[in-house]
Amino acid sequence: MKEFMYQEITQKIIGAAMKVHSTLGNGFPEIIYQRALAIEFTKAGLLFVQKFYMSIFYDGVIIGKRRVDFFIENLIRVELKAKAIIESAHFSQARNYLEVHNLEVGLLLNFGNISLKYRRIENPKYDPNLKSV
Hints:
Blueprint: H1 2-24, H2 30-43, E1 48-58, E2 61-72, E3 76-81, H3 88-100, E4 105-110, E5 117-122
Parallel strand pairs: 3-4
Antiparallel strand pairs: 1-2, 2-3, 4-5
Helix pairs in contact: 1-2
């Protein structure tokens, strides 16, 4: 059941990103894509929070904060990039954020190429018995 929910939400997110990319193309700064995505997410009926800070904990102590591009339906963290090349460090960073917030699924969207590139990222350390975010 939960997997179906993730699939339905990620399809809406990717569909909105494809609409934004097909309309704007590549070459804009990340903030432009973020603003356009907020419009498309609203049209798609997705509940989201954008550009807010989530605390990073270590051993129960806040050791920093990280800005989140989008947090969709209180389930999926969406990280945006507008880079010509996405490196493995970007994927590792996205996975690390899922781990520190105990989120199961995230998406990395890259608007920096001729076609939209996206990747679903799963948290191998996700614990459904722990509180997320």
